[in-house]
Specification:
The complex is a heterodimer of chains A (171) and B (156). Chain A contains eight helices and no strands. Chain A is mainly alpha-helical. Chain A is elongated, with a radius of gyration of 17 Å. Chain B is 36% helix and 38% strand. Chain B contains four helices and seven strands; from the N terminus they run αβααββββββα. The chains are: A mainly alpha (171), B alpha+beta (156).
Chain lengths: 171, 156
C-alpha cells in the first residue's frame, strides 16, 4: 500500500484571503480541501464519513486564523480531519473489536467492498493509524504525535490492523 | 489498492452547511422541496429574475460580467442602495459577496425531492461577538426566500 500522490498545491494567497474573511475565498478553499479531507475521513469514519468531513471542514474554516504558515495547510487540515473522523466514528458507536471472524473470501471480485468490510472490523483508532501510515505515508513518530499516542502504540495498532488485512486477503 | 479506500464526498448542501457554520453572523436555513433538482436549480440559478423574488428587499440584480462560473453583478435595493457583487455559480452551488453582504444557495437531490439551502448575512467587523444571538434570530429570515422559491415552483 504505497502512499497516494500528494494533493494539488493550494495558492497561499487564497488561504490568506480566506483568513481575512473573504467569503468566496473561503468557499474556494473548502472546494480545494474537501477531496483531501474526504480521503482522510472516509476510511476512518466509513458510513459516517460525510458527517466527519463536514465537521472537519467546519473546524478547519473556523480556526483558519490560527494557521500561521499557509504552506502547511494540508498537514494542519489532516490532523483536524483525523481527529474529527475518530470522534464522529466513536460517537456513532459502530466500532467493533478488531477480530476477524467473517472476513470476505480472498479474490472476491468486489475488492472495494472487501476493504470497507475489513476496515469496518477495526476500531476508529486502528483505522486512523492505517490511514496515516499507509495512505498518507507518515512515519510512526509523526502518526503518534498527530494521534497523541506513543509511537509504540502506533506500531501495535498498525500491526493489528495489517494482520487483519492480511488475514482477510491471504485466507 | 489506493482507489479502493472508501472516499467521502460532500454534496453542495453539506458544503453550504460548512460555510454557514464557519461564517459569523449569517442566517442559514434549508428545506426539502418536493420537486426534482433540475427544476429547482433552473429556477434558483436564474439570479436576475429569481433573486429579487426571493429577497424582497432587492429591487434588481443584474449580471455585469461572466467568466465561466465567476460573475460580477450589480444589486439595487428597494431603498435605492447599491452594491457590487462577486458571484460563483455552478450546478447546485452559488456564493455571492459584496463589501458588506454575503449570500449563498445550494441544492442537492434527495430521492425525488431537492434539499435546498439558503445563506445570507452581513460582513461587519465584530459580528463574531453577536453570532450566537444573530444566528438564532435570523434563521426564519433565511427560510423565507426558500419558501418563496417553493411557491414560485408550485405556481408553474
Amino acid at each position: 500500500m504505497a502512499p497516494m500522490t500528494g494533493p494539488p498545491a493550494i495558492d497561499p494567497a487564497l488561504v490568506r484571503a480566506a483568513q481575512h474573511g473573504d467569503q468566496i475565498a473561503m468557499a474556494d478553499l473548502m472546494d480545494a480541501l474537501a477531496p483531501y479531507v474526504g480521503r482522510v475521513c472516509g476510511p476512518i469514519a466509513l458510513q459516517d464519513g460525510p458527517d466527519a468531513a463536514q465537521e472537519a471542514l467546519i473546524t478547519i474554516l473556523k480556526n483558519l486564523g490560527g494557521l500561521r504558515e499557509p504552506g502547511a495547510i494540508y498537514g494542519w487540515a489532516r490532523a483536524i480531519a483525523v481527529r474529527e473522523a475518530v470522534r464522529v466514528a466513536r460517537k456513532a458507536a459502530r466500532a467493533v473489536p478488531a477480530e476477524l471472524a467473517d472476513v470476505p473470501a480472498p479474490g472476491d471480485p468486489q475488492l472495494a467492498a472487501d476493504v470497507r468490510d475489513v476496515l469496518a472490523r477495526l476500531t476508529p483508532e486502528h483505522r486512523a493509524v492505517l490511514v496515516l501510515r499507509d495512505l498518507e505515508g507518515l512515519d510512526e513518530q509523526a502518526a503518534g504525535a498527530l494521534l497523541a499516542v506513543p509511537a509504540a502504540t502506533v506500531r501495535s495498532r498498525l500491526f493489528r490492523a495489517r494482520r487483519s488485512f492480511r488475514k482477510a486477503w491471504s485466507g | 489498492m489506493n482507489q479502493d479506500w472508501p472516499m467521502t464526498e460532500l454534496d453542495p448542501v453539506r458544503r453550504m452547511r460548512v460555510l454557514a457554520a464557519a461564517t459569523p453572523g449569517v442566517a442559514y436555513a434549508e428545506k426539502l422541496i418536493p420537486a426534482p433538482f433540475s427544476a429547482v436549480w433552473d429556477a434558483a440559478s436564474d439570479l436576475e429574475h429569481q433573486l429579487p423574488r426571493m429577497i424582497t428587499d432587492l429591487r434588481s440584480f443584474e449580471i455585469t460580467s461572466t467568466r465561466a462560473e465567476r460573475m460580477t453583478a450589480r444589486a439595487r435595493g428597494r431603498l435605492g442602495q447599491r452594491a457590487s457583487f462577486d458571484v460563483v455559480l455552478r450546478p447546485g452551488w452559488c456564493v455571492m459577496q459584496s463589501r458588506f453582504l454575503i449570500g449563498g444557495m445550494a441544492a442537492a437531490p434527495e430521492g425525488d425531492s431537492t434539499r435546498f439551502a439558503f445563506l445570507g448575512g452581513l460582513r461587519l467587523p465584530g459580528i463574531r461577538l453577536l453570532d450566537p444571538m444573530l444566528r438564532a434570530a435570523a434563521q426564519p429570515l433565511a427560510l423565507r426566500p426558500i419558501t418563496r422559491l417553493e411557491h414560485r415552483l408550485q405556481a408553474r
